[in-house]
Amino acid sequence: MKGYWVSVLHISLLSSALLTTTALAPVSVLADSPGAMSSKSQVSTSIENTVPAFRNVSVHDPSVIKVGDTFYIFGSHLQVAKSKDLMNWDSVASGVTDNNPVVPNVTKEFAEALQWSQTDTLWAADVIQLADGKFYMYYNACKGDSPRSALGVAVADNIEGPYKDQGILLKSGMWDEISEDGTIYDATIHPNVVDPDVFFDKNGKLWMVYGSYSGGIFILEMDETTGKPLPNQGYGKKLTGGNHSRIEAPYMLYSPETDYYYLYLSYGGLGADGGYNIRVARSKTPDGPFLDAEGNDMINVKADKDKPLFDDRSIEPFGVKLLGNFLFQKQIGDPGTDQGIGYVSPGHNSAYVDAETGKQFLIFHSRFPGRGEEHEVRVHEMHMNSEGWPVVSPYRYAALEENTAQLTTQEIAGQYKWVNHGKEITAEIKSSQTVQFTPDWQISGAVTGTWSLEAQNQVQITSNNVVYKGVFTHEWEPDSQKTVLTFSALSSSGVALWGSQMTAMKDQDIVNAVKKDLSIGDTGNVFFNLSLPTKGTRNAEITWKSSNTSALSATGVVNRPRTGKGDVKVALTATIRKGSAVSSKTFNVIIPQQAVSPLLGEYTFEQKKLAKIAQDFSKNEYHGQAFNVATSAISSKNQAAAFNGTDSYIQLPGIITDTTDFTFSAWVNWSGGGAWQRIFDFGNGLTRHMFLTPAQHTGALQFTIHDQGRDQSLIAAEPLPSNQWVHVAVTLQGDTGTMYVNGKVVASSTEITFNPKDLQVTEAYLGKSRYTADPFYKGSMDNVKVYDKALTSNEILRQAKEKP
What we know:
Number of helices: 5
Radius of gyration: 29 Å
Strand content: 35-45%
Low-confidence stretches: 1-49
Mean pLDDT: 92
Largest sheet: 8 strands, antiparallel, barrel
């Protein structure tokens, strides 16, 4: 059968990379259902002596169905992808446009739903094959800022379409009007008709579970021949949620192994700062009651109507939390090149059971630590613990050769990275701690307790008087490129515990690994305080010594020399110790003198070699590097920088943002084009940055400063004029931000509390975004100036009158 799940998405509008998407739910595959004829072939579970290969895809809210030997996932925005091995995915279609092959002329085909929902996109779709051999797509559209939605069904002879609309099945959000159940629509008790999952129960009866936020999750009995709801049900039977609690993306999966129906749900918000997480409850019948591990009836789980909208605290104690934000943190000396393996806001899952092997898979989308709103599909294997609850393998499915041999105490003993997922709905990332499993059944280190091994490699862990039951498995660890021993377990209160065994190392090998891996970043122009690590892998100790503590302390505090004193060179030495093993590593650091104030940088692009160097004509000489930027004559006496919109940009030294108060001033001649181009983008990775775009998703000029998941923005009421020279400026002073066009204020806020200095800028671009999905700037720039103070409105006006 097919497995799928859908979830409602309430998204923030950030920058290009933030897709206005909704979470979908995958569909579950039932081995003995009448409609399951397309999903009975076995999942490939082994790649012998081969390093697993992956090809990723971005499909939000993936709902899975297997047809022949191919898995398909259908998601929001009419995104479709396919794979034969659950590891390598190829895109089939994307975008609610009339050239999408899955639903050609979709704006006409689904016009009624789009018009009712007052939107131009679709949310999480779900597809199932019925007894007539046809494929039924359950599509849905939602206004987004309200539960005004429509849910319909379309049919195709082929899984890849074309699908033809069969009409709307349900509507919601009809304020002050009669709803589907004959009463006035009330969003606190009636559903938002999105995120459908259509499935067969073990007796061959067809159902649809759906809903998001608003009044909760509902289930309807369906006609197996038409694929539509049986009459006179209204919205159906409620299973959980209500009062706008953030519960969505229901997905139903029956397990022949336990004879339970498992209702998967996503709690929280799907954005990188939303704390999205996957939970489950179970029932002996598809329409409930569904209970969590503590026996709580999920029908009683809802937000407190007397608390603010989207009250998470009332719902987070309930449901079995399978996974949320986590990070198997890479410590200095560990293999890998990034910060480790982890997820941010994983959710809107579907699931699949292989009919022949009984293997269970969880399919979901996730964001990732340090990558902002970028998301990809992930597939993990699931196992049942001794209490009949699914536990999720810590690493993505890699089709390893299955090893079912009973483990020994000596094989299990060793150090582990340990993650407790908790029960919270939070943007916090649960980072791993290091623990030791000893051969005498003890657990020591960051966490203490005991462990025991049972038949079929089941494990019982006791810590802080809490008992966790789960399973040991071998998984592929991508940083080390090795198979490692892992465990996944659940407590009786529904808290997930994950562990990943670390390779045993001798002390000298640990010291050598830490020394090789130790870095403090670019040492050629250090103007902000350094975070000097004091620990490496396996608790190796790192101590520091500075040759010039007045400029750079042994704790990383930077004190720049006064203007005119010149830059200072500092030898910063790290000593690494583990047991009796010791070694050292020295970094040569340049601490630049303080800038000549207030003009930090001035770029008039008059030099002949603009193709390589963007000369700073201020006294600070903060020259930039130009990439594919041409010189464009404005007049016989004035030149500008021309950006081709394809690969042109200028990289400035990050030190140009070493200021609390700030002004960016420039003349721009923007050629128009795609949203989220950048006039400038200054920052440090995806977690701290600020940018000015000539047009965001609504076409407006926007400045945003972003720090650790929060945006503070200035948005103009009108677009930036194109194909003409326009003066733009942004000033920050205290908590006040102001944006100007041609000397006139177009946006202002007294709630811009972030400062450029706090961003610790390492990448400063003109004409380029740090998000790879954003287009390059197309047009020209001239007289770009950066100040360490906020220019007055009169000063901005004077610059706006000095046309290039």
